[in-house]
Known about the structure:
- The protein is of the alpha/beta class.
- The protein is built from nine helices and six strands.
- The structure holds 1,6-di-O-phosphono-beta-D-glucopyranose (B16) and magnesium ion (MG).
Amino acid sequence: MSIIKACIFxxxxxxxxxxxxxxxxxxxLANELGFDFTEEDNEKLxxxxxxxxxxxxLQWGGVTKTEAEKEELAxxxxxxxxEMINHMTPAEILPGAKEFLLTCRAAGLKTALGxxxxxSMTILEKINLTALFDAVIDGNKVSKPKPDPEVFLxxxxxxxxxxxxxVIFEDAIAGVEAAINGGMKVVGIGSPKVLTGAxxxxxGLNEMNLEKLSLL
Length: 216
Ligand code: B16
Ligand code: MG
């Protein structure tokens, strides 16, 4: 058991399901390049950075591109993605996420976002949750992708809380590993078969409460 002073949340798959929009935009790009990929393949892109996602997709399609072309393709995908997230509303917040954030804050716990996405601020504003985070660490502030713990360690630092007193909420295996690598507690959101190594696995934040937090 440890004393939890802060909760750090991943965005996609924990607070909102932006994976559907990422999938639509990447699929459109792949289709324009003359190939397709499945929703099952899309699972492998969760929590993975934009650059790395593009590399994986090009590999699946057997397509080779120069660095300059890759930059253009990533920018095109992001343009389509941003068009979609600009239409997001608070109705898209995943069940229990807002309630648990409020519970944490009412209990005096600090809250932060720890996401790979460079679009996190836009999403938080669209879903009207910006005010519930004491710190936002996203793809614009980190150089090393998960499973490197950089994103979460920066979150702990900005909150002025020791890593050992932080719990991370993550849906991707690379994110669970990042939390462990940072010496933090981790609650996996998804399947216990996939998120091995997490201290607790739940299907969504609607299953989380302060009692479960105190038992970590
Ligand atoms: P962007 P998370 C991740 O968000 C997504 O799961 C992943 O699919 C995406 O490629 C990545 O953000 C980068 O997003 O293109 O908006 O910078 O799960 O770390 O909140
Ligand atoms: Mg995620």
